[in-house]
C-alpha cells in the first residue's frame, strides 16, 4: 500500500467540487487517511511548488494556490500515486486530460486544473511531511 498527497485547489473548492473529488477517490477504493480544509500561506505554497521556481508561471501559480481555501488530503491504497493521477487526468484539462477524469470533466485551463496529486514516491513523502507533519 502507498500514500499520496491530494489537493483540491482553490478553483475546485470555489466551484463546489470537493464532494465530487472525494467521491471519486472513495469510489475508486482509495482510503482517506487525513483531510483538512485550509488556507495556504506564501511559505507553504513556495515549498510545495519549489520544483517550479524560476518558471514563467511560478508567480501566478503561487498567487493562485494562495487565493482561497484548499482541501488537502492524504490518500492511501495500492498504487495510490498512479491511481489518483489517473483519476485526475493530465495536467492540461483540454489537451491532455481524458473525458471521465476530474480535469477532463471539469477543467478548461492548465493553471486552473482543480486538483494536485503527488507524482512519485519521493514527492509523496516530501509533500505529506510538508502538509501533514503529524501524520
Ligand atoms: P500538480 O503538480 O498540481 O499535480 P501536474 O503534476 O499535473 O500538476 P506540473 O507540471 O507539476 O503539473 O505543474 C504544476 C501546476 O502548475 C499545474 O497543476 C498547473 O496548475 C500549473 N501549471 C503547469 N503548467 C502551467 C502553465 N504552462 N501555465 C500555467 N500554469 C501551469
From TrEMBL:
Highest taxon, organism lineage: Bacteria
Query: What EC number(s) has UniProt assigned to this enzyme?
Result: 2.7.4.6
SMART domains noted in UniProt:
NDK
Identify the GO cellular component terms for this protein.
cytoplasm
Instruction: Report keywords, A-Z.
Output: ATP-binding, Cytoplasm, Kinase, Magnesium, Metal-binding, Nucleotide metabolism, Nucleotide-binding, Phosphoprotein, Transferase
Q: What is its main location?
A: cytoplasm
- Kindly identify the residues recorded as the active site: 116
> Which reactions fall under this protein's catalytic activity?
a ribonucleoside 5'-diphosphate + ATP = a ribonucleoside 5'-triphosphate + ADP; a 2'-deoxyribonucleoside 5'-diphosphate + ATP = a 2'-deoxyribonucleoside 5'-triphosphate + ADP
Report the record's Gene Ontology biological process terms.
Answer: CTP biosynthetic process; GTP biosynthetic process; UTP biosynthetic process
Q: Which Pfam families match?
A: NDK
The record's section on Gene3D superfamilies has:
Nucleoside diphosphate kinase-like domain (3.30.70.141)
Q: What subcellular compartments does it reside in?
A: Cytoplasm
Q: Known PROSITE patterns for this protein?
A: NDPK, NDPK_LIKE
Which residue range or ranges hold the Nucleoside diphosphate kinase-like domain?
Answer: 1-135
Q: Which GO terms describe its molecular function?
A: ATP binding; metal ion binding; nucleoside diphosphate kinase activity
Which InterPro entries does the UniProt entry name for this protein?
NDK-like_dom, NDK-like_dom_sf, Nucleoside_diP_kinase, Nucleoside_diP_kinase_AS
Q: Which cofactor does it need?
A: Mg(2+)
Residue numbers binding ATP: 9, 57, 85, 91, 103, 113
Into which family does the record put it?
Belongs to the NDK family.
Q: How does it assemble?
A: Homotetramer.
What is its biological role? Major role in the synthesis of nucleoside triphosphates other than ATP. The ATP gamma phosphate is transferred to the NDP beta phosphate via a ping-pong mechanism, using a phosphorylated active-site intermediate.
Which protein is depicted?
A: Nucleoside diphosphate kinase
